Amino acid sequence: MQSLTANNAKTKFGDLLMKVQREPVQISKNGSPVAVIMSCEEYEQLEQLKMMMLKSRFEQAERDIENGDLVDGDEFMKALNQGQFD
């Protein structure tokens, strides 16, 4: 992934728009990364992937409920607080 300073991104915005059509570009300010700019196409693909993953998790949860594979909430919270899932 290419990286630009915020100042370069501002002064060469047209070039930045061309670069993001090929790959995401990281923008840094004061030496720290602050943003990533990507094409609309890549963003839409990322959003579709997120929705597919979320849908898959909901479908798995529905199957678990149908199969009676449930966990008592109080027991889960106790185990979580004890660091069982760390």
Secondary-structure element string: EHHEEHH
Main sheet makeup: 3 strands, mixed
Do you know the CATH topology of the largest domain? YefM-like fold
Principal-axis shape equals elongated
How confident is the prediction overall: mean pLDDT?
A: 92
Corresponding CATH architecture of the largest domain: 3-Layer(aba) Sandwich
The N- to C-terminal Cα distance equals 32 Å
Instruction: State the helical fraction.
Output: 55-70%
Per CATH, the superfamily of the largest domain is YefM-like domain
Please provide the count of β strands.
Answer: 3
- CATH level 1 class label of the largest domain: Alpha Beta
Domains (count)? 2
Structural class: alpha+beta
Brief rundown of the structure:
The chain is an alpha+beta fold and 86 residues long.
Structure notes:
- The protein is of the alpha+beta class and 86 residues long.
- It folds into 2 domains: 36 residues, YefM-like fold; 29 residues.
- Helices cover 57% and strands 17% of the residues.
- It has 4 helices and 3 strands, in the order βααββαα.
- Strands 1-2-3 form a 3-stranded mixed β-sheet.
- The radius of gyration is 21 Å and the shape is elongated.
- The protein starts with a strand and ends in a 5-residue tail after the last helix.
- InterPro entries: Antitoxin_Phd/YefM, phD/YefM_antitoxin, YefM-like_sf.
- This is Antitoxin.
- It comes from Vibrio alfacsensis.
